[in-house]
Amino acid sequence: MSKPSFLWELSKTGQDQCNLQAFIDHVGKSNETVRDYDSLYRWSIDSSEEFWPALWQYCGVISSQPWNRVLTNREAMPGAKWFAGAELNFAENLLRFRDGRTAIIAVSEGREPRTLTYRQLYREVASCADRLKSLGVGQGDRVAGYMPNIPETTIAMLATTSLGAIWSSCSPDFGVKGVLERFSQIEPKILFSVDGYRYNGKKIDIRDSVKAVVEAIPSIEQTIVTAFLDREADLRGIPVATGWEEFSSDATEIDFRQLPFDHPLYILYSSGTTGKPKCIVHGAGGTLLKHLAEQQLHCDLGREDTLFFFTTCGWMMWNWLVSALATGCAIVTYDGSPFSPGPMAMWEMAERLGITAFGTSARYISACIKAGIRPGEQVDLEKVRMILSTGSPLVAEGFDYIYGEVKRDVMLSSISGGTDIIGCFVLGNPLRPVYRGEIQCRALGMAVEVYADGKPVRGQRGELVCTRPFPSMPLGFWNEPDNERYHKAYFSRFDRVWTQGDYAEITARDGMVIYGRSDAVLNPGGVRIGTAEIYRQVEKVDEVLESLCIAQRWDDDVRIVLFVMLRDGVQLDDALKTRICSTIRQNATPRHVPAKVVAVADIPRTLSGKIVELAVRKVVHGEEVNNIEALANPEALDFFRGIEELQQD
Questions:
Q1: What is each CA distance from 28 to 23, 57, 432, in whole angstroms?
Q2: CA 354 to CA 383: how far, in whole Å?
Q3: Dihedrals φ, ψ of 93, to 5°?
Q4: Which helix (DSSP H) or strand (DSSP E) does residue 532 occupy?
Q5: Could you tell me if 358 and 387 are in contact, meaning their C-beta atoms sit under 8 angstroms apart?
Q6: How many CA atoms lie within 13 A of 561 on its CB side?
Q7: What is the pLDDT of residue 1?
Q8: What is the domain extent for residue 539?
């Protein structure tokens, strides 16, 4: 018997009181065609030059100069320019609140939690900005963070951007080569780092790595090191190093540099698993507006909320998390293993801190399922009203788990977008029901379609695209004046249409299902199969902890090969192979059944936790994998070289 499709809907009272409904009412006063989410969404696409200014006004964006034109070159993709003439400062908008409410709750493995109020945060940023200014940091300079997700990282970013400089970060689990492949391209003037960090009960000293990075990048004039692992850490081996405690001043006010709407704010990086990481430049105004729309409207965040997202500073969700300071809620910065000191660590934290919006990855939810964790029976999650999931497609069984084992009355928002747009194409919606396995809606202001054979389709799988300009489109790639790689990455497939690289479907309910990366789509016998379709079925087999599938070239076609990581003590015998294949066949189609099922000790993944099907496919075919430093566990690739079983029928 099939599972029920409908899972949850916000009460009528809740809908009437949410920010999204208030925004609809606000817009509806001057535009009677906007009555509900469907009409609001269509208006936000058809009249984007009215929608984004309305959002600006509703969210109270702080600016020193008004715009003289909302959108120029409307048909240009890329090339459209938003809010010409407007001037603002990103950090000023995130630091608009300067009261005694909690701004940051810092949770780090092996440490007691600490808090910063908005008043304290402002003063800390003022001090840091003053010192950076004394070092000559100004408009357009790059400042880099080799940092964990701790308050000092947020403070350094806000201080940097208050001066008009550009922030870029990697997490401390990046190896030296991975850091150099990123930071050496952008030539930072200042580096913020730590002496080390803790993960899963282990202390990891990175001082030698920091030393190697500073010695290899001549542009770095000063390194500010937080003694995070050991308060007495010796920093003398690191060139031009100053301790965080010494890097302070008596300044209490910030002179926010007013800059054009599209002034560079962040440099983020592609994963780099298929080549040298691309340095993606994001503008201040576009980032701010996109995050305000997602957080205040789609996530319904307000000052009473406490937002948590499990992320590192090497993933765009960190940038997304800290933007919530503009809403005035409390954000939880978390550094450490999600399962330390025990499997319930993050759920217990949610209860202890009164988290209202709990963000994590589909992988974490899957791990909780496999571990048999039942948070709803063990902790009080009364205050959690929203759970967000991203990083990879959340399978339907993940939806079942949240509503069956975590909390019945909660909005589960599976979201999808990317580093490329520093936000979401599709995400949650407090005015719409949650259906099993579906993302609720397309994001406001984003003209999202699914293309098959170059045409928009419904109820059919194809390429996720965006057909009209949006403010958080990247400014380009760093130091690439001709935009050749930028155009090739997003606009070479369809003329003047952004192609995200996801294989997706718009459902009959106007929701969305993501089937995986389109460049990893399997195509046996000419039938396109998203990898997530197979993962969804393999999740049901209790003995399998995780899986990865590829298309192996075979007999002038391709065949599906499924790699499985099994529970300790489990052997992949013929009976288990048969059960895996039967589960796939019964719940999908015979076309989905792998030709080979192979057990592996580990599944290779990026530092942000995404499995790397393309890298595995290259290894299986004897091709070189570029930039294995982008992987969290590069040694896992070794197993896939020359597997004898894959040479057989």
A1: 8, 14, 19
A2: 6
A3: -70, -35
A4: helix 531-538
A5: yes
A6: 23
A7: 39
A8: 521-647
340 lies in the same domain as 422: yes
- CA-to-CA distance for 107 and 497, rounded, in angstroms? 42
Amino acid 161: pLDDT: 98
SS3 262: coil
Do 527 and 436 share a domain, yes or no? no
Same structural domain for residues 541 and 508? no
Q: Can you give the CATH number for the domain in which 234 is found?
A: 3.40.50.12780
The last residue of one of the domains, among 494, 512, 530, is 512
pLDDT digits over 133-179, tens only?
999 999 999 999 999 999 999 999 999 999 999 999 999 998 898 89
Please identify which residue in the block is written with the tokens 């419904």: 458
Q: Are residues 188 and 251 in the same domain?
A: yes
CA atoms of 445 and 534, how far apart (whole Å): 32
> Hey, how many other C-beta atoms are within 10 angstroms of the C-beta on 635?
11
Sign of CA dihedral 359, 364, 366, 368: negative
Cβ-based neighbours of 250, under 8 Å, separated by 6 or more: 127
Amino acid at 371: A
Tokens 């950090």 sit on residue: 91
At which of 512, 536, 555 does a domain end? Answer: 512
Q: Which of helix, strand or coil describes residue 443? A: coil
In this structure, are 492 and 554 located in the same domain?
Answer: no
* Residues 117, 118, 123, 126, Cα dihedral to 10°: 140
CATH of the domain at 543: 3.30.300.30
230 CB contacts (<8 Å, ≥6 apart)? 195, 196
Residue 241 lies in a domain: yes
Cα distance between residue 649 and residue 647, in whole Å: 7
Q: Are residues 449 and 549 in the same domain?
A: no
- One domain, residues 443 and 589: no
Domain count of the chain? 2
Residue 443 falls inside a structural domain: yes
Whether this model's pTM surpasses 0.90: yes
Task: Classify residue 488: in a domain, yes or no.
Answer: yes
Beta strand pairing call for 498-506 and 462-466: antiparallel
Q: What is the DSSP letter of 634?
A: G
pLDDT of residue 275: 65
- pLDDT at 4 (0 to 100): 64
- Structural tokens at position 226: 């937080």
- Identify whether 81 is part of a domain: no
Structure tokens at 74: 């409307």
Do 393 and 315 belong to one domain?
A: yes
User: CA triplet 301, 306, 310: central angle to 5 degrees?
Assistant: 100
Can you list the residues of the chain whose pLDDT is less than 70? Answer: 1-4, 272-275
Q: CA–CA separation, 93 vs 62, rounded Å?
A: 6
Residue ranges with strand state E in 47-122: 63-65, 69-72, 81-84, 87-88, 102-108, 114-117
